[in-house]
Amino acid sequence: MSGRDADVLVVGAGLSGLSAARALAAGGARVLVLEARERVGGRTAIAHPREGVGLDLGGTWIGPTQERVVALARELGVPTFAQHGEGENLLELDGRLRRYRGTIPRVGPLTLLDLGRLQAGFGHLARRVDPEAPWASRHAAALDSLTVADWLRRRRHGRRARALLTIAGRTVWGSEPEELSLLYAAAYAGAAGGMEALLDTEGGAQHWRLEGGAVELSRRLAEPLGDALRLETPVHALRRDADGVRAETPAGTLSAERAVVALPPPLAAGIAFEPALPAAARGETWRMGTLTKCFAVYPEPFWRRDGLSGEALSDRGPATITFDVSPPGPPGGPGVLVGFVGGDDARALARLEPAARRARVLDGFARLFGPAALRAEDWAEQAWAAERWSGGAPVAVAPPGALTAIGPALREPLDRLHWAGTERSARWPGYLEGAVRAGERAAHDVLAAL
Ligand SMILES: Cc1cc2nc3c(=O)[nH]c(=O)nc-3n(C[C@H](O)[C@H](O)[C@H](O)COP(=O)(O)OP(=O)(O)OC[C@H]3O[C@@H](n4cnc5c(N)ncnc54)[C@H](O)[C@@H]3O)c2cc1C
Q1: CA neighbor of 11 nearest in space, from 20, 2, 23
Q2: Order of strands across the sheet that contains 417-419
Q3: Distance (Å, rounded) from C-alpha 115 to C-alpha 104?
Q4: What tens digit of pLDDT does each residue of 106-134 get?
């Protein structure tokens, strides 16, 4: 090791960096994990407003087609439980409240036709884009020059279908249709197996929750690292030369043969690289989405008595999607509703005082679930855009031009630098699954190179 601090420096102790560290250690490499925050888990975190109630402030669910994260949970002994889905879902659209079952809301026949056309059109697009190399797909440049909003306009979709896609996009990407490259959105959906997989509860991305919260995966991965994990150690600069890599941190300089940068592209762009990265590899045009999660805790999940699942879509918001995230266990315990406030709604909510934010979100819950929703006993919110070491959530998104500009540099190592973080995965980017895959892939490449 010739006086180096480690064989490999891993920058970022989110699920991706920690998955990389685990695979590297299993391959016999000496790793040092450098994490800016005072905790591990990055975009996963848990809050306990009271005993027995754990709130997943960030990433929460996993699903049956997410093979690596499902296997990891099993290997680490983190039990899963099914997302509560019994009962009818709600749709608030154009001032009307409707009940429905499954993923497709019950709307008028014309809207239903339009929604079917929207789904088919988007599905067709997603299948035409290669998730491994979207920038090399046919018509990539043309698709990357358009936004999702342009596409909706060109196809003359009706107002309601557009409203439903906007609602979905605010939670899936924390972004408005105007902010998303069409190529990026199509590749993202394709990499998950289709838009339905992103939105479905049963069988889709919202199938299971994890006991102790999703952050439990990162906590368990961090345990065996001991002193090899350095918290409160942000990396400001990364230098590379023929000898190896050196990371500059407030605690001094650390050296290794190679480094895995396990950060979303906009945060990686905040590191001073020497020599500077080529323009294509910088990722600085990617932007973090804006997503706030709001939680209301009640004496019981009262909506279940009305035959409701707690799942709702609303075009009025500010929470445009809600779920029942009550603690698992026998009936009689507390009930918890989570509301997702994304995109423009999240930016508007952030401008209000805390009491007004709570009142606005609870008003929305009451329109959906009745006046009992106003009587929350506990309240919590997490605005990810205000988190210095995330800068937003749930994922870094590519505006027009950004995906074709970065191209293969999104994933390919550069000299002694390897890239991880969920955004770099070719399957389920943006999700816990993508984080594990990107970390494991980077570790595999590093081990082959060492
Ligand atoms: C509100 C929300 C809801 C979500 N819901 C789901 C869901 O239900 N299911 C799902 O699968 N996914 C969900 N996600 C996405 C999921 O949480 C992420 O895909 C995943 O956690 C990303 O892991 P990561 O390791 O790639 O990145 P991160 O978790 O962002 O890890 C990066 C780490 O790097 C650290 N860092 C940043 N800069 C530096 C630096 N300069 N030096 C050192 N360290 C640095 C950060 O502190 C962080 O710990 C959600 C995310 C959010 C925020």
Answers
A1: 20
A2: 229-230, 31-34, 8-11, 258-261, 417-419
A3: 9
A4: 777 788 888 889 989 999 999 999 999 99
Residues 6+ apart with CB under 8 A from 359: none
**How confident is the model at residue 78, as a pLDDT?**
98
418 CA → ligand 1 middle, Å: 18
Instruction: Tell me how far the alpha carbon of residue 262 lies from the centroid of ligand 1, in angstroms.
Output: 9
The answer as to CATH 3.90.330.10 being correct for domain 80-103+200-210+290-393 is no
Distance 16 CA to ligand 1 centre (A): 8
Domain segments of the chain as ranges: 8-42+214-287+397-449, 80-103+200-210+290-393, 106-199
Q: Whose CA is nearest to atom 10 of ligand 1?
A: 431
Instruction: Give the CA-trace dihedral at 165, 62, 200, 120, to 10 degrees.
Output: 60
Q: Which CATH superfamily is domain 8-42+214-287+397-449 in?
A: FAD/NAD(P)-binding domain (3.50.50.60)
Closest ligand 1 atom to residue 206 Cα is: 8
Instruction: List the structure tokens of 109.
Output: 């026949």
What is the identity of the amino acid at 40? Answer: V
Cα–Cα dist 15/397, whole Å: 19
- The CATH number assigned to the domain with range 106-199 reads 1.10.405.10
Residue 433 Cα: closest atom of ligand 1: 11
Backbone angles phi, psi at 275, to 5 degrees: -60, 160
Q: 394 CB less than 6 Å from ligand 1?
A: yes
Q: Is 118 left (phi over 0), alpha (psi -120 to 50) or beta?
A: alpha
Which residues make Cβ contacts (< 8 Å) with residue 35, sequence separation at least 6? 12, 13, 17, 229, 230, 231, 232, 233
Provide the 3-class DSSP secondary structure of residue 194: coil
Full-model pTM: 0.98
Same fold: 8-42+214-287+397-449 with 106-199: no
Instruction: Please give the distance, rounded to the nearest whole angstrom, from the Cα atom of residue 123 to the centre of ligand 1.
Output: 27
CA-to-CA separations, 68 to 192, 195, 316, 418, 422, in angstroms, rounded: 13, 20, 37, 20, 13
Confidence tier at 196 by pLDDT (50, 70, 90): confident
